[in-house]
Amino acid sequence: MQLRNLVVVMGICVLFAAPLVFAQAKAVNDQVIEFDDTDLKYPAERAVVAKHYAEEIKAVEKADKALGSSAELGIIISLVDLNGDGRKDIVACLIHVHYYGMNSCQIAIFLAGPGAKWKHVLEDSASLKGPISLLGKKTGGFRDIHNISTTGSKRERIWRWAGTRYKLAVYAEEGIQKKE
Q: Which residue stretches of the chain are H helix?
């Protein structure tokens, strides 16, 4: 599954009809997350994600088989240090038509802990039609995470650390602004 070309440059938020709460030029410390989609890199981290979602993956594969579908579930991964502890955390997207169509994915984040232990701290939908980025801003010592859909339905999301996990803090859709 080739998805490398999905990463685009920030700053396209000017396409929104209504000004968004957080629409701004890319800050110096923002970093677009680049995912690996080859299945060759990060085998141990892929195994963590696959194990966590094992039942869900089986259910999706069973439904595909019943429907005669040949769609494959893909897992794309990036390793980034979200909290400055020097350990690389997992940012993964599960991609399948089951997850909101092929324009979106199920984003999952696992924090690296001591002794190869992982803590699942985010599960939500994210757009594949725009970048998923780490913002320079931190909440509680963790980088804020930003996602923007640049085509079709215009949406932006920001997830912020909420003490024990990431939580959707800002959601904006064309013509609608919502803060949680």
A: 43-52, 54-67
